[in-house]
Amino acid sequence: MKTVIEESYVLRHLALIDMERALRSLDYLNELKDEHLRQALFRDAVVSYVKPFSDNKGVHTKKGLKINETGVPKELKAVHKEIVDIRNELFAHMDITRQKPQLDVYKTKGKKHVSFTVTGYEKVYVDHLIEPLKQLAEVVHSTLMNEIRSIKRDHF
Q1: pLDDT tens column, 76-128
Q2: CB 84 within 8 A of CB 95
Q3: CA 87, CA 100: separation in Å to the nearest integer?
Q4: Which of the chain's ends, N or C, has fewer CB atoms near its CB within 10 Å?
Q5: Ramachandran area for residue 55 (φ above 0: left; ψ -120 to 50: alpha; else beta)
Q6: What are the residues whose beta carbons fall under 8 Å from the beta carbon of 21, sequence distance 6 or more?
Q7: Largest Cα–Cα distance of the chain, in whole Å?
Q8: In sequence order, which residues have a C-beta less than 8 Å from that of residue 103 and are 6 or more positions away?
Q9: Nearest CA to 139 among 13, 3, 19, 14?
Q10: For residue 155, what is the enclosing H or E element?
Q11: Quick check: helix, strand or coil at residue 15?
């Protein structure tokens, strides 16, 4: 890539691939009963969807190469944020504030015991986000297609 415009064009094509992957994972998820596989597909859909909105490195843009959120409809902004937060706090990192672990240290009959429980780590998808995530991926895909056409028309 010789220019920032070319990099921007390529970024949008790569983001299209991610949106299509998110959509395929969500479609497969709906066909499965196995909870583990459903969680894996949901995680893949979330990571694929959020990746283009995250800071990426480019040839000309060393940090902060990402698509903007203008393609996210106003009525889905809260869902978009929740999905980004799940990716950042649960899938890409293990934020203790998201995991909500409980650590108890106590003594019984003079012997020290430690118990540990966690509520946010075992279930990695939320049913109420599946359809909104699909809507988001479809809308962002459409926006990316329009942006690609516009860049192509104006610069190539």
Answers
A1: 999 999 999 999 988 888 777 777 778 899 999 999 999 988 776 666 667 88
A2: no
A3: 16
A4: C
A5: beta
A6: 44, 45, 48
A7: 78
A8: 114, 115, 116
A9: 19
A10: helix 127-155
A11: helix
Q: And the tokens for 55?
A: 């800071």
Task: Report whether 117 contacts 102 (CB < 8 A).
Answer: yes
In three state form, how does the secondary structure of 67-99 look?
Answer: CCHHHCCHHHHHHHHHHHHHHHHHHCCCCHHHH
Report the distance separating Cα 44 and Cα 76, nearest Å: 20
Quote the CA–CA distance of 149 and 46 in Å, as a whole number: 26
In angstroms, the CA 66 to CA 141 distance is: 14
pLDDT single digits (tens) 20-53: 999 999 999 989 999 889 999 999 999 999 999 9
Residue 12: both structure tokens together: 């949008």
Residue whose entry in the numeric block shows the structure tokens 């220019």: 3
